[in-house]
Every structure is written in C-alpha cells, then in structure tokens.
Amino acid sequence: MAITYKDAGVNIEEGYRSVELIKEYAKRTLNSYVLGGIGSFGSMIEIPEGYKKPVLVSGTDGVGTKLEIAFKTKKYDTVGIDCVAMCVNDILCHGAKPLFFLDYIACGKLEANVSSDLVKGVSDGCLESNCALVGGETAEMPGFYKDGEYDIAGFALGIVDKENIIDGSKVEDGNILIGLKSSGIHSNGYSLVRKIFTDLEEDFYGDAVWKTLLTPTRIYVKPILSLMKDVDIKAMAHITGGGFIENIPRMFGGRSFTAVIDKSSYEIPNIFKRIMEKGVEEDHMYNTFNMGIGFVIAVSKEDAQKTMEKLKSLGEEPVLLGHVISGGEGVCLK
Q1: How far is 81 from 137, CA to CA, in rounded Å?
Q2: What pLDDT, in 10s, does the model give residues 112-142?
Q3: Pairing between β-strand 207-208 and β-strand 319-326 as defined by DSSP bridges
Q4: Residues 6 or more apart in contact with residue 59 via CB below 8 angstroms
Q5: What is its EC number (predicted)?
Q6: Distance of CA 209 to the CA centre of its chain
Q7: What are the helix (H) ranges across 258-303?
Q8: CA nearest neighbour of 324 among 174, 178, 171, 179
Q9: Mind listing the pLDDT tens digit for each residue in 320-331?
Q10: Bridge-partner residues for 1, per DSSP?
C-alpha cells in the first residue's frame, strides 16, 4: 500500500485551499512599488523615486503568547495586525516608511479558514501601514505543533533617506517627550497576562475580558510619517517588551540621558489597573507593559506645542509625558 504525504499528517489539498483564500488578502495590499504578483519564488520591490541616499531599515517580530488567547477563543483575525504592528512600529522609530511585509505561519494541522483569518489580520495591518504584503510561508508540521495551535511571525522592510535617519543623535537636554496612546496591552507581557487572567470569560466592564486582551496593537505609521513632514523629531521609541523602563532609553542611541516621566500626565487604562488589583506591583508594570502609551517621541521645547497641535489634527490624543535631562541612562518615574 502506497504511503502519502497525507498519511504523514500533511494535507496538500487543504494547503491549496489556504493559498487561494490568502491570495485575495495579499492582493489588496499591493502598490505601485511591487513588480509582479503573488505566487512566484521571490517578490520584487522597486525602490521609490525621490531618495538621494536611500537606506533600507528592517525589523522582524512575532505575536508571542497572546496567540494562546486566540486559540482558546477561536478568534484569529486580529493577531495578524499585531504581527505587522510589532514590526512596522519598530522600523518607524528610525524614520523609515514601510515598503513591504512578509509573514510566516506554522502549525501542526492546517485549517484553511484559520490561516486565512490570520492573513486577513496581516493584510489589515499592511493596509493600515501602507505597505505591501508581498509573500510569506505557511508551514504544516504535524507532531511538532499541537493540532489547533499556530505561530505567526513577520518581517518588514522600510526606507529612509540617510540624512533623515532618526537615531537619537540629535537628542538634547530639555527635549520634551510626547506620548501617543496605546489601544491596550498590545503584544507584550502576555505570559504574565495569561497567568493573571485564568478565566477569559471574567467580567471586564460588562464584557468578557478576552475581548480586551485581544485588542490589536496600534499602528503609528500614518500619524508619525505625517508629523515628520512638519516637525524635526529628535528620537522615537516603540513601547514593547520591557515597558517604559527598557524602551524609552533606547531612543537616546546609547548616549547619557534620563527620561523624566510624569505618571500623572494621563489616565492609565483600566486593563492595567485591573492587573495591578490582581497583585502586580506598579514598578513591575512599568517594566513590563506599555501602561497606555504605545509610542514616544522627543522634540525640542520650541516644537512641543506645534507637535501637540499637529497630532491632535491627525486624530491623536497626545500626552505631554515628560522631558529629557543630561546624565544617567534610564527612566525616572515621578
């Protein structure tokens, strides 16, 4: 009796169905920079005109254990947004405009409807960040992943003119720190979140808490790229794993500065208050979560008001978060 790939746990037909469903989500993100369509062995991107010395900026990341909440609730169409956000927000910190995105999905047993939901989220994230989903890989690995479990990761590539790279080298004493609000926990700290919220149906302001926990990560590409046209941004930080404590100092490019943060400058979202009510101390919160601020920029004192007004005109609710002082290499929470 002949042995087939299906006998080994890989369903080729389901793979074909998955590809057909995914193609439509990828096609809607393609832009004028993309040469060729979906399905070739490689994807080709033409570097846009107008760059004197173009520099390519890359980033890669995944969604982490937030995926387990998606597995348990069988809601898969938002974590793809998280995957894109984690990558494009990172390269945005250097002033890069995202050009394209690639995804990687791995599973034990492929279900075409699930994989297409995952890619729908990726596609939504790409549309939100104006970058093209030009390809990816879906790997079915029976016996390696449990049935019903998936992993997703991505890679983003962006572009910036060399003279416009933002790397913290222009930060000065007295610069103002402005925060852009997060949509919630985003995609970091979920190993702790899952330990705290063992009942995903727990009431959270009249709804099951899992709905808040699965809120996708905000993508800051459009407001920041628009702001860069009018304001000389000194540095930027994406607040991911490590929270305020680890990420804000990264925006100084290894130079000796301290970020003085006014904790009373904004209202901490209720989800973080609930986590603290369950026993996590405040200091640990600021070293784990974004605490309601997903992106931070540094500007001169002279540009602070202009920056606030511009961000408000773009639909943001910016926060005057604090300021920079010379010396030290960390964050001072006041």
Answers
A1: 17
A2: 899 999 999 999 999 999 999 999 999 999 9
A3: unpaired
A4: 87, 88, 90, 91, 155, 156, 158
A5: 6.3.3.1
A6: 21
A7: 270-277, 282-286
A8: 174
A9: 999 999 998 899
A10: none
